[in-house]
Amino acid sequence: MIKVVHITAHLGGGIGRILSSIAIYSQIEKEVEHVIVTLEKTENSHFEQLLKEHSIKVFLQNQCCLKQILQEADIVEVDWWHHPLTSAFMHNYFNDIECRLLIWSHVSGCTYPYIKYELIKCADKFVFSTPFSFENEYWSNEEKEEVMKRVEIIVSSGIDFDAPVKKKPHHGYNVGYIGFLSYSKTHPDFVRFLEAAADIPDICFKVVGDTAYGKELIKDVQNSKLVRNKVIFEGYALDVKEKFAEFDVFGYPLNPMHYGTAENALLEAMAAGVVPVVLNQCTEKYMVRHMETGIIVNSIEEYGAALRWLKDNADKRIHMGNNASEFVIKKLHIRETVNRLNACYSDMMSQNKRLHDIYSAIGTNPYEWFVSAYWGDVNCLEGNSFAETKGSAKHYLRYFPEDKILRKVVETNESRI
């Protein structure tokens, strides 16, 4: 049995869901043993407890003999989204410990944090979670050709649905959203999208997600005369199937610069038989087949029109939802994810363990780690590169306050804003 040691910053949110699903489902196949090392304690321990209930080993970095665990691994898999602790881990270990290295990116890399060619070249196997990653405009033509040869695409779906969710009888027309509520993920004009459909009779917008990250969104909703009484913030939910049973449509307008890849909430909605309405952008355009498994729109006006059409054409909405469910369950079920990963692991076993020149890929100090996924002038940071988290300069400085260059970059940008 192949032993794969995962290195992940934590087991929260989407990454916790996908890694726990993979590790648990792999116990059925009995081809791969998954061991998980988290680099910091996860705030919500749900997925960690779930893994332990299935006798899957989960270690915290500072409470285990990490070097020995890495040496005993057949494959070391870094689950990457440019977290500061992941950069520190790679810097501290990969120049000294021989291993077979797989890096699985859980961000698209087409916006910050960017995936640079040097990082792809460093790994023995690099995996994208979406074909959208190939649209990275910062690679040269030669690099793009090499990337096409080197990289696998495995949509990181944790879907274990086997059929559409049975709908709960409810009053009105429910348009649901599940996910991160910060404007770094939701569209900055999210409220305007809702307003475009506010005149639909009996419409209700059910927004599911941790409201601690949605204060700005909540404020904007409260300031909207058109939708303030039509939006319900339901908070974080572990059992999303219950939520999908109440949704008629899944409205999912995301920030055009969002960093997401598989968009697990979108895939789960489709698997549940809830028709998605998404923007013609990023990874969404690869996941939804227009008018077959959902509706792709190009503007706020088209979004409102799509919700209106789906309300007025219930039979077609149900048919489209069934198509979406069949597509995701057939093509993107967790068994397919596990089978594709297992093929990667088996292929890697023919290679010898080796050292990896990680310094050339990410640098040797926190400032260099940060800019290894950034393009542009560091004195003009914006968006996710200067958010509070998401692998931003401020995020890196919070973990490495002793880095003087990084501190100067943050202070320069704060004085500019």
Automatic annotation (TrEMBL):
<dbReference type="Pfam" id="PF13692">
    <property type="entry name" value="Glyco_trans_1_4"/>
</dbReference>
<protein>
    <submittedName>
        <fullName>Glycosyltransferase involved in cell wall biosynthesis</fullName>
    </submittedName>
</protein>
